[in-house]
Amino acid sequence: MVDWSRHFEVQNSGTHITMRVTLPSKRKRESMGDSDSPPATIPRLGCSANEFICLRCKSINLERIFRNSVSSSYGSYIVTLGRASYLLESNCLLCQLFASITPSDFDRNSSPRDDFCHLYAFSSSRMYAGLNGLALKSFQDSIMLGVTRIPPPRRMDTWTWHQMSQSLKETGYICRVDALASEEWDPDASTFQVRLVPPKVDLRLARKWLNYCINQHTNRCVPRNPLAVLPARLIDCKSRSIVKTSPHSSYLALSYVWGQDSLETGAKQPQLDGSTLSKVPLVVEDSMKVTLGLGFRYLWVDQYCINQNDPEEQHHEIQNMDSIYANAQATIIAAAGQDANFGLPGVSSTARKPQASLKLDGKVLIRTMPDAK
Ligand SMILES: [Zn+2]
Ligand SMILES: [Zn+2]
After folding, report:
1. What is the per-residue pLDDT across 106-117, written as a single tens digit (0 to 9) for each?
2. Cβ atoms 252, 326 nearer than 8 A
3. Which ligand is in closest contact with the Cα of 223?
4. Is 189 exposed, middle or buried (0-12, 13-18, 19+ CB in 10 A)?
5. Separation of 222 CA from ligand 2 center, angstroms?
């Protein structure tokens, strides 16, 4: 066992103590800062890491933080973690976990001090559900840790708060659970549960969510208006052909960005009505898989279901786009990637971003999923 304590160098920077690892490390910042590829050192699931926690992180009283409640909507300041670059280069696994939720868009023109990261505790009910007052009482609250670059002011103005909550939405939070179990979804649970998201999409679970929505939310979520305009055509995902919409076709819709590259390299506009789709961009291919996996047959994709050569039809369908989406059973939103060739992460070849987690003192710290972009 390496004696890691020998390699730590304590630097007192005046306001707080930061830890730097002076052990030569192959891990360079460049290999970790790329937002598309996950850091090579993301703490792996089930890693028991007590030996690899730096003194600063050891001084953070996680027991107390997760036991206490946070009454302020602005969160409760815990500690200043130091520069983002320190977190990224640290060999401490807790520092690395914090680095995984550090906002990446540091303003390069600002002074180096602005590069400092601060750890806050937040209330899950407030941050995720925007609940307050009476509604909060019916939920069992839990604590989530967030890293922001906004130092703790006595009073936070609305604009600063807006910036902070935006960046937290993008980076996600760190939650703590007793164990990582692949628990069944409990719709009646009164607490926010953090879930271990598997590398592949669990369509069975998504189907349950959808069924719950259809059965419990009724008109609120599925406004079936008999007078509404339906799309002229749909993709039949079973036969991979374009078919005319019948009045009772249940379909999913796809919302995505086609992208310049896909226009150049992507499939040509297919012949409409009865034509078969052979090669389609990955996002369409993946969406067809999702449609079938969720128990549906038809999918609406603007590029394939609107005849681009018929200006009148094109105008009509674009005018009624809201109705087409509103009448879909659900809409698949391709939020990740720049164009249609990126696909839907976790469905076929495009991988999901790994979800960092760390086993510490018999509990599991786990990151909520970040923004798909
Ligand atoms: Zn640390
Ligand atoms: Zn619903």
Report:
1. 555 555 556 789
2. no
3. 2
4. exposed
5. 7
